[in-house]
Fold diguanylate cyclase.
Amino acid sequence: MSGQSEQLNEIHWLMEMLHTIDVGLVVLDRDYTIQIWNGFMENHSGLLPREVKDKKLFDLFAEIPKDWFLRKAESVFLLKNKAFTIWEQRPYVFKFNNYRPITGTADFMYQNTTFIPLMSSTGQVSHLCLLVYDVTDNAIHKMELEKANADLAILSQTDGLTQLFNRSHWQQCLEAEFKRFTRSQNISSLVMLDIDHFKAVNDNYGHLVGDDVIRHLAKALREQVRETDICGRYGGEEFAILLADTGANDALVFAERLRKTIADALVIYNDIEIKYTISIGIAEIKPELGSAAQWLENADTALYQSKANGRNQVTIFQS
């Protein structure tokens, strides 16, 4: 009797442990009807073990993609090996709400699931055990870290004052565009522009006003360029734009429109009203150019021709 009592106690303890562990445990037979449903599954689904016993899994949980699940499960039955699914591949098998206070921003519980074959006395796989792990904390932390890294990457490419690309990243884009031209010979134009008499703005009104003028120009650039164009602050009051698949004459149309927009605009800082203009240089990429630096030098030369000729104008580089 003593031996029987010990065995019964062991079975009781085992069942109690399986029912209370903080891991979902589900056992399915060969027809995918539920045989075991532990406390974790009960707590998160709201369904009691007696309510799910001998019920088809797919009838109770329509969110489970049946074709996907059967492919996964049948391989376990056939090969007698475990299978796994992680939240990066599929966020969940059972769509449970997320109750964790730390990760309260999650709409559902992220899950890792293990599919385990259960052998009968004949050595055949008669049942399938699912272990469902709540990995919401890890998933949220990883996604937040990835977002933080992505934001950091954007910050490392961005000029703080204008929110345009900074000089370093913009020059990398220039090199990439030059290499693209050497492969495909697709035409592009480079536009360099500079605020006329900007030093006088800083000297007369202060650097805060000067920063506001720079921000005003950056906003105008964002409104004028296309999504495919690459715009950056080259340094100080100087800006650069890569116009992909655009010849010099089309670039001239863009530049003149921008120049006129700026000339007609009025910047108001507190009670200060400021009018300013810009000078622009354009250089179309050419087969004879030996480097991106030479292309940039051509655009810079055209820009200083605009300044030398009286400012507030556009010049196309002529070799």
In short: The longest strand covers residues 125-134. The longest helix spans residues 136-157. The radius of gyration is 33 Å.
